[in-house]
Amino acid sequence: MADIKTFHLPDLGEGLPDATIVEWLVKEGATVRLDDPLVSMETAKAVVEVPSPYSGKLVKMHGGNGDVIITGAALAEFEIDPKLPQRAEAQSTGHHHAPPAPAGAGSKTGHNGDTVVASDEGGEISSGGAKPAAGDAGTVVGAMQSSDAVHAEQAVSVGGVKAVPAVRALAKKLGVDLTRVAPSGVGGVVTMNDVKLAAASGSARAGAAAVRAVATPGPAAATVAAPAAATRTALSAAGKPMRTSPPAAHAGVLGQPEQLKGMRRTMARVMAEAHAQIVATSIVDDADLHAWEPGNDITVRLLRALVAACKTVPALNAWFDGANLTRTLHPHVDIGLAVDTDDGLFVPALRNADRLDAAGLRAAVNRARAEVMDRSIAASELSGYTIMLSNFGMFAGRYATPVVVPPCVAILGAGKLHHVTVPVLGGFEAHRVMPLSLTFDHRAATGGEAARFLRAVIDDLALPR
Questions:
Q1: How many Å apart are CA 369 and CA 377, to the nearest integer?
Q2: How far apart are the first and last CA of the chain?
Q3: What confidence category does residue 252 fall into, taking pLDDT thresholds of 50, 70 and 90?
Q4: At what angle do helices 298-312 and 447-461 cross, to 10 degrees?
Q5: CA distance 356 to 123
Q6: Would you say 413 and 448 are in contact if contact means Cβ atoms under 8 Å apart?
Q7: Is this prediction's pTM over 0.85?
Q8: Which candidate, 190, 166, 192, 188, places its Cα nearest to that of 178?
Q9: Dist CA 169 CA 51 (whole Å)
Q10: What does the pLDDT look like over 12-23, one tens digit per residue?
């Protein structure tokens, strides 16, 4: 009788309840060796290549590309080949999976009992499917460690193209053929920006025939090419990549339910939990920037003002544990900076912001945003901040009620700058002002503390430099 082993999705080192299948790297029915790449899984933080825990034939896949699998649910089944090397029973990496989540909306169950939390096809949830046996720790995943090491992505050459798994996942999502993308990374590695530029220009669409430039002199050729060049460009006036095809080309079918995946799925969960736990109260005011000298960096000034306020009123630079009614005041200031992306909201931490000068703050912001955009940021850098900042005014809006994410106590929101008429001695002046919105957890801070904190922010922003 064949020895069949079921491999359950382990905790990929982030403590998240599920992960999305990006791409199976082995076909069903094929033979795979121990620790060979098996499947690419996307979590809220990264795309991880999960190696095979066994040597043998892959006889069943419990989910297809795009399906969301809960941690601890069956991922694949193997027919063990005793002639090939296997991992010893006691040789575990120490991962532990959570039990399958209870039934909820937005998933499907195959007729053969596969457990899939969510898929691009929609459907109903079922808790059916094979459950981990008592003797199966479900934790042997190659040499993956329960640390940031799980997110270390290497640029692997496949089909002559060097790219990390996250870049391959983005190319698949945007319909870009990586073999037709010009690499700009070190050693000929295709980067996130290469894929985005190719998607924006439409020069490397998957499945499209390669377009070869043919020299055809003459006014007719120039006349035909000119309108296209005038109506479609890969870059905006600011020199940034922009979408040149309809939204439907990059998203699901319009008018149809779309399962949330990756960061958007986590964002929905975190926001709901924050709304349920926090006793949120907001106060708003304006900072007068009339005294500013030329050359001020708005984001850096906001960060500096936030640090100054944290030193003045430490009660808001804190964590609050509602279950145990305990408060932790922090001696350092780690600012969680909200970064908007097409995949959802990321909040990287700017560590020790209270020790950085203006140049250091700008460098930290640039580094954090770049790592978020190319999905190279470590999971540890997306948590542990002591207070939050949202500069939503760079897009639109004056005031808001930004969401405080536990265990933080406060978040400052900066609105769109505008001019107001201010009465002065002998007449009126037009002053540029910045709208500010402070949301705080009223369980952990008083209204007076919040007001004094906002006053400290305003006073620092009023300085010329």
A1: 9
A2: 78
A3: low
A4: 140
A5: 51
A6: no
A7: no
A8: 190
A9: 17
A10: 765 678 888 988
